[in-house]
Each structure stands twice: as C-alpha cells, then as structure tokens.
Amino acid sequence: MSFLLKQASGARLIASGCVGSILLASAGLLDGFTATTHWAFQTVLAEFPNVLLAPGYPRYVIDANRITGGGISSGLDESMAISAILLGDNSARRAQLAMQYAPHPPFHDGDPSQAGPAILQEVSASMREGVGELRAAVRCVLDVR
Known about the structure:
Number of helices: 6
Radius of gyration: 16 Å
CATH architecture: 3-Layer(aba) Sandwich
Structural class: mainly alpha
Largest sheet: 3 strands, mixed
CATH superfamily: Class I glutamine amidotransferase (GATase) domain
Shape: flat
Strand content: 5-15%
Number of strands: 5
Order of helices and strands: HEHEHEEEHHH
Distance between the termini: 12 Å
CATH class: Alpha Beta
CATH topology: Rossmann fold
C-alpha cells in the first residue's frame, strides 16, 4: 500500500484495470470517487464504504483523475481514454487505427447484462472461490484501516 501511495503522490492520473481497483481502494486512493472493476468482483469493491461503485457494468469509469476499468478487454477502451486525456483525441485515434482496434466480438456475452443465463451461471460459479478469497483479504485490510 505504501508503494501505491508513494506513486500516487502528485500523479496526474491514478488508474487501474480489473481488480487493480481493489488495490487502489485498499490504499484509500478511491475514497470519495466512483469506480468500477471486473463484474464478478464488484461486490468486493462495494465493501469499501468510501468508494462509490459505478452502476451497471461499465468498461471504465473516469472520476476526476481516477480511472478504473472493468475486465481485461476493457483495458483497451480505458487506454484509449487515457491516451486522449494525456495526448489528445487525435493521438488516441491514431493509436486506435495503428493497432486496428475495431472490436467485433463473435459473441455478445461480455457482461452479465448481455450474457445468457447458463453462461453467466457457469462463469459465476467458476469465479466464486476467487471472489471469496479476495473478499476475505479486503476485510482484513478494512479491519486495519
């Protein structure tokens, strides 16, 4: 946590992807900010009473100089937004074209609001243990705070 706090001191942007938002929240760096994380871990992020969980399943959230992202693939969207903030929209557009980032997923099960019930059930069940372990770790952090 001290490493994160040291790095955040004076930072223009404080960003994380996926469950990295849990680390930022643990360090107190999301207190008073709206944030997101991977959909399966949103209940864990909600354990932090001073962090506002973004509604739904956003791919990323920008709140002042805090930027948090959802699951792994949302990192591309988040990186485009960060690039636009730091270097301007045209720079982000050039990067998007250079990497041929024009997603057309073959399936539309990318978040719980779109996934079929059977797929959602299977994935949720497979992630349950990891969610429980992370929740236990977060409760230890909150007890110390």
